[in-house]
Amino acid sequence: MKTTSPVTSIIAAIGATLITLGNNWKLAGFVLILIAGAIFPLVATGVFTFQITQLLIYAIAIAGLNLLTGFNGQFSLGHSAFYAIGAYVSAVLMTQYEMPFYWTIPVAAVVCFVFGFLFGLPALRLEGIYLALATFALAIATPQILKFKPIEHLTGGVQGLALFNLKPEAPFGLPFDQDQWTFYVTFAVTILMFFIAFSLVNSRSGRAMKAIRDNQIAAKVTGINLSLFKTLTFGMSALFTGVAGSLSALLIAFVAPDSFQITLAIAIFVGMVVGGVGWIPGAFLGGLFILFVPNIAEHIAHGLGWVFDLIRSVVPFFPTVSEQSAKGLTGTVYGVFLILLIYVMPSGLAGLLRLAAERLARARS
Amino acid sequence: MKTKKYGMIPALALGFAVAMAGSAFAQSPGVTDKEIKIGHLNPYSGPASAYGTIGKAIAAYFKMVNAEGGINGRLVNFISYDDSYSPPKSLEQVRKLVESDNVLLVFQPLGTPSNTAIQGYLNGKKVPQLFVATGATKWGNPKKFPWTMGWQPNYQSEGRIYAAYILKNYPNGKIGVLYQNDDYGKDYLKGLKDGLGAKAKTMIVSEQPYEVADPTVDSQIIALKASGADILFNATTPKFAAQSIKKMAEIGWKPVHFLNQVSNSVGGVIKPAGPENADGIFSTGYLKDQNDPQWKDDAGMKKWFAFMDKYYPDGDKTSSFNTYGYTVAQNLHKILLGLGKNVTRDAVMKAAANMKDLDLDLLLPGIKINTSATDFYPIEQQQMMKFNAKENKWEFFGPILSGEVRGS
Fold first, then answer.
1. Residues A94 and A238 in one domain
2. What CA–CA distance (Å, rounded) separates A90 from A120?
3. Is B68 on the interface with A (CB under 8 A)?
4. CB within 8 Å: B113 and A259
């Protein structure tokens, strides 16, 4: 122990910090997350880093939708629109105005907030499923608007905009490749966004949002400005999703109308429901689901070939299904997953975790 | 403790020797003495899932190759992922292919937007993006993207072929256009307009776009009929092509109908639309039609039927996607065969850019595949054909046409 290597000193530092944080488990958890985030891209493969970056981006978008639906009771099937706007603001600013990527994030956030706020105004008159339908229309219209001729010189029309050569390198000569650096940027923004989300829902405004969700008339009686809070929530929700879109432009390095079809809006919605409506950390579980379950479903579908062979050996008139054709069942397997999940955990993974925690607490007492 | 330390040395040396031996053979990623890994993307789900059967036919083809002993002693490990026609998903899946599965090349990714999303990545990594399944004109640009190559005739040249036919046979026609609102549809429209030249403005009376996510094209068909058009130029993907043919029959509209080659599958489009509704439709082709009795005794066609029976028995034997998949897979097979033992990414690209009068089982007689270091458009010839409902098949007519259009 004459000379301390950097590794041991770092471990010692972490240990010391942990001891001081011993009583404050929230802060300790936060520090742990920071350390995990810092180390992760250094040890993970490039493609896994890419996937986890995508997961964080989905989580931000899902958290945005959750603010609107879970905490304010307004439905949206159109969040792909704000995701697209965020992505396009970044892409257009980078390609047409040569703005560095980092500065396009706040611009995308502001633009999406304004769009969301404005969309929230007519949404005031729509409730429940009618609002869902109106936002659905927004999601359908967005890819078409992006191809609209008069703005084609900005958006690149159907061809979209390729940003391969504009991805920022790590600054100050830091020894990170693009995957690692994109992860760090996304990770930092994710922490900031979730900090904002937690602060928001635990603030006075957050309580007002929840009061509106639970009982509008009662909320109004207590002096809450309904229209202001509902439109502001719509704006904040769009802002979150727009920031996610902006980060996705960085990660994918290509934006095109086909990337923002209605399926994306549905994926964000599914992510929210699976993660748990009205529970912020559920966004990560939701992101995990919409990112990985389709891949898992694909593997399972691919492996179904032998199941059909087995059935055919018992039921001779069962049609021949080759291994390749079983692959076409990916969507079906995904659907089965979804149905099972909603059946087993009607309040999402959040509900399951809460239930488990309650059982555990009861068992202890 | 010391013995343990020294015990490591022989092991290290052995590892080093193995590594050296490996590098001596100059083995490329995805290639071992026993195996060649080929990566593939296809929309098995989502709005373009009708194309899924192409991927299945290709997988079946390589199964056949393996059953017959592989390629120069190596078996093909064909890894195919679903990208559901979504560009971000394509990028995720292609990265998995290149970085986790370590494939030699990425074969036949389908769709113009998806291929654009992965083009920068694959060219940056110097991984062949070979024979992309899209006819957009931009894929043949070896100067900027030396690792990307198309395969099928491009959409613009096909549009020009129809334009020439219309000008010759229906000079006073009123043309209505139905097209998919993306660069695939717009490429066709551009080819048609370029081919019509100055007459495009007066001859085209209505242009009706639709979105790939639209449920139907019914309203567009009604609008086209109302425009008074007597010629329909139909640049749609399979699902919409079938819908449009059906809807036209329902409302009793019978224009001269030019259907793009993308959707002329008898099994995938004509059958669901009702063959009786498709009588007299014009299209172009470059592959032999398996539903046409004139190829009944053709050696190549016989091979294809035997292949379908044995390796893809539940595949649709009337679908042109399955002849397409077989043929494009055969082209890759021939390239890899020609490389012998020296299979590297570089060698694959060089061979692909040096195909001379290559003939494949199902290409129409007279159509040959040619490429060079500056010509990344493998198939540039096609022939016109007309659908005969009575016999449920396409009938070829006229000469082999070349509508060469080069992208910038």
1. yes
2. 23
3. no
4. yes
Query: Does B316 touch chain A if contact means CB atoms closer than 8 Å?
Result: no
Is beta strand A161-162 parallel, antiparallel or unpaired with respect to A254-255?
antiparallel
Residue B234, domain CATH: 3.40.50.2300
Nearest CA in chain B to A53: B92
**B51, closest residue in chain A (CA to CA):** A328
- Radius of gyration over alpha carbons of chain B, in Å? 23
Rounded distance, CA B262 to CA B112, Å? 13
Same domain, A195 and A312: no
In angstroms, what separates the C-alpha of B210 from chain A's closest C-alpha? 9
d(CA B13, CA B79): 34
The distance of A27 to chain B (nearest Cα, Å) reads 34
A256/B87 CB distance under 8 A: yes
Neighboring chain B residues of A143 at a CB cutoff of 8 Å: 211, 213
The yes-or-no verdict on residue B24 having pLDDT over 90 is no
- Count of the separate structural domains present in chain B: 2
Q: Which residues pair with B12 in a beta bridge?
A: none
Give residue A33's domain range.
7-43
Dihedrals phi, psi of A315, to nearest 5 degrees = -105, 100
Same domain, A325 and A237: no
Residue A276 and residue A351 in contact, taking contact as beta carbons nearer than 8 Å: yes
Q: Do B45 and A252 touch (CB under 8 A)?
A: no
Chain segment A66-109, per-residue pLDDT in tens: 999 999 988 899 999 999 999 999 999 999 888 999 999 999 99
Domain contains A1: no
Burial class (CB in 10 A: 0-12, 13-18, 19+), A42: exposed
Which residue's entry shows tokens 């229209």?
Answer: A227
Contact state of B60 with A324 under an 8 Å Cβ cutoff: yes
Residue B104 domain-assigned (yes or no)? yes
Average per-residue pLDDT for chain A: 86
Single-letter residue type at A218: A
Please, what's the largest Cα pairwise distance for chain A? 79
Q: pLDDT band at B20, cuts 50/70/90? A: very low
Q: Which of A50, A259, A330 has the CB atom closest to B87's CB atom? A: A259
Contact residues, chain A, for B43 at CB < 8 Å: none
Domain that holds residue B178: 155-285+382-402
| Contact indicator for B118, B129 with CB cutoff of 8 Å | yes
Whether chain A has a CB inside 8 Å of the CB on B272: the answer is no
The two three-digit tokens of residue A213, written as one number: 């969700």
Tell me the mean pLDDT in the region A329-353.
Answer: 83
Token code pair at residue B218: 């019914």
Nearest to B116 among A54, A160, A330 (CB): A160
Partner-chain contact B55 A327, CB within 8 Å = yes
Contacts of B183 in chain A (CB under 8 A): 157-159
- 3 state DSSP class of B318: coil
Q: Characterize B49-59 residue by residue with b for buried, 16 or more Cβ atoms within 10 angstroms of its Cβ, and e for exposed.
A: bbbbbbbbbbb
C-alpha to C-alpha distance for B355 and B231, rounded to whole angstroms: 38
The whole-angstrom distance between residue A159's C-alpha and the CA centroid of its chain comes to: 25
Interval A9-20: pLDDT, tens: 777 777 776 666
Residue A365 inside a domain? The answer is: yes
Same domain, yes or no: B97 and B107: yes
| A320 has a chain B CB within 8 A of its CB | yes
What is the number of structural domains in chain A?
A: 3
Range in A352-356, B41-45, B187-191 with the lowest mean pLDDT = A352-356
Beta strands in A46-201 (DSSP E): 161-162
For residues B14 and B138, membership in a common domain is answered with yes
B183 CA: distance to closest CA in chain A (Å):
6
d(CA A60, CA B233): 44
pTM: 0.80
Side-chain half-sphere exposure of A204, counting CA atoms within 13 A: 4
Are A160 and A247 within one domain?
A: yes
